């Protein structure tokens, strides 16, 4: 066995007697000792930003596994935020023992828009897309800077000496990087020019910092890739017989999927059945009733 000679500050070989008790006995003694100590307080607040990230993770798990437990977890978490951490389109940072924390910061809004876009992808329910757009407009008006980027806190917060803009993607992505991704996704889904312009401006703002050390801006790089090399986009004109919930799972997980309202002139039904309009790199394939044929 190895030992340490403290006087000579060197590692030496030493004869160490093996433990005469089992690991179970050791654990029992350790547990008994810990019970005699003062119980430490736990940080059990429910955070809006972290729940937003987890909702996105659960949606991704649902897409690849098709297990309803993940979708249910995502929807339940979103419902909790709506019921307890959101009022009149204003988010709050945390919830603990029936009380809400302070008004939300950029990370809270960016993470929640991130979650709404994920929920729209897995359910194709318009309410999630509308919520994402509404929250995004609030971020643009309350946190945006005309010179580019988003401030950490909004116009309704207490004014401090500085209004920082955090861009570093560490263990969790920064609010600015998440907003870059959100704006790109909103443009890809809606094709609205205003989201394209805002996405371009946000990507330009983050590019300088990211160019010095790209690994510290991983979420920004994902947004950049989505903008310049987007995955396929599938616009679906749905008939009355198609299950919307199953439709979300039948399409590629990384595809941008948009449902059109019924009887839209630009996307008519082919043969009176659900029709897929698939585009990539500004090129579109002929409409088809069988998406597997395109794969």
Topology (SSEs and partners):
Blueprint: E1 2-5, E2 10-13, H1 23-35, E3 46-47, H2 48-65, H3 68-84, E4 86-87, E5 90-91, E6 94-96, E7 99-100, H4 106-123, H5 126-142, H6 175-190, H7 193-212, H8 218-228, E8 233-237, H9 244-250, E9 256-260, E10 275-280, E11 283-284, H10 291-294
Structure characterization notes:
The protein is built from ten helices and eleven strands. With 295 residues, the protein is an alpha+beta fold. The protein has a four-stranded mixed sheet, covered by helices on one side. A three-stranded antiparallel sheet has the order 3-6-7. It has a two-stranded antiparallel sheet with strand order 1-2. Helix 2 (48-65) runs antiparallel to helix 3, helix 4 packs antiparallel against helix 5 (126-142) and helix 4 runs parallel beside helix 6 (175-190). It is globular. The protein starts with a strand and ends with a helix. The relative contact order is 0.08.
Overall geometry: globular
Q: Helix/strand-derived class? A: alpha+beta
As a whole number of angstroms, the C-alpha radius of gyration is: 25 Å
What is the tally of helical segments?
Answer: 10
Strand order within the widest sheet?
9-8-10-11
Tell me, rounded to a whole number, the average pLDDT.
87
Order of helices and strands: EEHEHHEEEEHHHHHEHEEEH
Strand content: 5-15%
- Spans of at least 5 consecutive residues whose pLDDT stays below 50 are 1-5
**Could you describe the largest sheet, including whether it forms a barrel?**
4 strands, mixed
Distance between the termini: 60 Å
Number of strands: 11
Helix content: 40-55%
């Amino acid at each position: 066995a190895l030992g340490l000679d403290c006087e000579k500050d060197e590692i030496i070989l030493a004869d160490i007697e093996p433990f005469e008790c089992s690991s179970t006995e050791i654990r029992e003694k350790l547990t008994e000792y810990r019970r005699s100590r003062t119980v430490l307080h736990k940080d059990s607040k429910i955070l809006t930003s972290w729940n937003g990230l987890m909702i996105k993770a659960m949606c991704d798990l649902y897409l690849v596994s098709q297990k309803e437990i993940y979708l249910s977890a995502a929807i339940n978490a979103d419902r909790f935020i709506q019921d307890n951490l959101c009022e009149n389109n204003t988010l709050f940072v945390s919830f603990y023992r029936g009380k809400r924390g302070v008004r939300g910061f950029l990370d809270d809004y960016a993470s929640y828009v991130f979650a709404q876009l994920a929920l729209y992808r897995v359910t194709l329910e318009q309410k999630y897309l509308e919520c994402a757009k509404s929250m995004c407009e609030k971020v643009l008006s309350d946190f945006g800077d005309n010179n580019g980027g988003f401030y950490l806190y909004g116009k309704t917060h207490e004014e401090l000496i500085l209004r920082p803009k955090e861009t570093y993607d560490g263990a969790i992505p920064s609010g600015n990087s998440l907003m870059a991704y959100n704006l790109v996704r909103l443009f890809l889904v809606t094709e609205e020019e205003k989201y394209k312009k805002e996405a371009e401006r946000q990507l330009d703002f983050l590019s300088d910092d990211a160019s010095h050390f790209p690994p510290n801006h991983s979420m920004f790089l994902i947004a950049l890739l989505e903008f310049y090399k987007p995955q396929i986009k599938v616009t679906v004109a749905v008939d009355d017989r198609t299950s919307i919930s199953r439709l979300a799972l039948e399409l590629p997980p990384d595809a941008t999927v948009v449902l059109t309202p019924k009887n839209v002139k630009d996307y008519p039904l082919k043969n009176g059945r659900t029709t897929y309009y698939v585009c990539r790199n500004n090129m579109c394939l002929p409409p088809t009733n069988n998406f597997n044929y395109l794969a």
